[in-house]
Write a structure and sequence with these properties.
- The longest helix is centred in the first third of the chain and has 27 residues.
- By secondary structure, the protein is mostly helical.
- It is 65% helix and 0% strand.
- Helix 2 crosses helix 4 and helix 2 packs across helix 5.
- The chain starts with a helix and ends with a helix.
- InterPro entries: RNaseH-like_sf.
- Keywords: Membrane, Transmembrane, Transmembrane helix.
Length: 106
């Protein structure tokens, strides 16, 4: 949720200044879709081996960055290099990852 609200670390949704519930609802929908796209890009970065380029430490045995943060950094650097077919593959891979993590939680 911080990724949506924070102007420094995310989309800055807390700066919207709207009092219209419908407008806020639409802004939330756009933010959620953008978050989903960033997770897809993060998965692409992880699978392509770019993850360590964006982390500030040298930990190599576990994932340090969230898919969202990794996707944001990857989008700033490489986003134009991904084909629509690859995005479809990543969407399926992200669904599998969400399912796997849900299974781990019980």
């Amino acid at each position: 949720f911080r990724d949506l609200k924070s102007p420094r670390l995310g989309f800055g949704l807390e700066l919207h200044r709207s009092r219209c519930p419908r407008r806020i609802e639409i802004l939330l929908l756009i933010a959620v879709l953008a978050s989903y796209a960033l997770c897809l890009l993060g998965l692409q970065a992880r699978e392509a081996g770019h993850e360590r380029r964006f982390q500030s430490n040298s930990v190599k045995d576990k994932h340090v960055l969230s898919l969202w943060r990794l996707g944001l950094e990857y989008a700033r650097t490489y986003a134009g290099d991904i084909s629509p077919e690859r995005l479809r593959e990543l969407e399926l891979a992200l669904r599998r990852e969400v399912h796997r993590q849900a299974q781990e939680l019980g």
